[in-house]
Amino acid sequence: MLVLAGVVAGITGMISLLHILFGLEDLGEGMRLLVNMSEFLFFLSLLFILVKSGKKLL
Hints:
Layout: H1 2-22, H2 29-57
Helix pairs in contact: 1-2
């Protein structure tokens, strides 16, 4: 599960980086939806990794 969350964080992080560099939201409604979903999944996967790794350390 941690590997899957890492992959999701990596892919959505790249989409967020492209959005910051090139302004993907300006390309249309579909891209705006993709960027919003990608930001949500990015933070959700980082939260999952943080919770799972916190339990492993305790």
